[in-house]
Structure prediction request, 395 residues.
Amino acid sequence: MRVVEAAAFVAAPLGGMTLAQMGADVIRIDALGGGLDYRRWPVTADNTSLFWCGLNKSKRSVALDLASPEGRELAMAIACAPGEDAGLFLTNFPPRGWLDHDALKARRPDLIQLTLQGDRHGGSAVDYTVNPRLGLPCVTGPVEGEGAVNHVLPAWDLITGQMVAVGLLAAERHRSRTGLGQHVKLALEDVGLAVMQHLGFIAEAQLGQPRQRHGNALFGAFGRDFLTQDGERVMVVGLTPRQWRSIVLATQLAVEFEALAERLQLDFKQEGDRFKAREPIASLVGAWMAARPMAEIAAAFDRHGVCWSRYQSMAELAQDPECSPANPMFRTAYQPGVGHMSLAGIPLEFSGTPRLDAEPAPRLGEHTEEVLAQLVGVDAAQFGRLHDRGIVGSA
Prediction:
């Protein structure tokens, strides 16, 4: 399957990369000199964007002067190039000019175009503007906290990126059955709104009980962070009955928990009751944790199958074996402009198809001549003339 992508930020490039890492030929249309996020932080000492490299793995890059009519003509020709498994176009730029669906459809009637928007009205929005509207910054942070706490993870971008891939695959399946293309629209804000309804946040508020801050506590069951005797911090979760039993067995606090439940007239087999008693439960677990070093706690938790994790820094994460080739999702490869680094492939593992190796992000314009020759029929002499006139770029 061939997908042509004209995109920036997180969600749309992530959608394209998701397909690329499953074997699709994803071709980026890039502006000469790079687009909006070609230098986006984090960057290396020589200003190579790790952000751009991370979200464009396994793709091809075509660099064009999109301010010129000839450059735009070439971009449209690439997007609408023939091929049974081609004619899929992804963008999160305003669908006008060469990005206009009707203009592209006139060239290829069965074109599938997915346009990612900020909101359903076509307005501008990013993760950091969607999240405040959803109310989540007001329930993030310490219980006694005030004001808003923005989350550092662009959750809506990430979910939307996966929906981009799903949307293109669904539209392609529809076309394979009917022969019809279509214009698929997806709004970042709508993804956030839908998830807030799916998870009950909106219904809670409509029933007069909007979610409050609970700090690091797991809402609706038992779970929170604790400090060990030697100063390590761990997260412990007792969401399911089995997870709760594992905590009881590992800490050997069954008698204390039974007495607490009886005193509070609660049933700790019920996750909601464990949430109601989260503070006294935490006092018991916290005292047990504070009296033991990390190694002893880890051994007990692993022996009894407790759901837990040790907090670690980003520096520690970079050295984690799960971020190395010890995990089949990762490989070490040379990324132009950066050097040798760990590259993550697709998390999906298919029993019928071997996992594809993660490939580095392309150099800007690395595949311009190759793609124009393959898809548009531009020969070497024509390419040379276009290059000399500044219409196309190459790595």
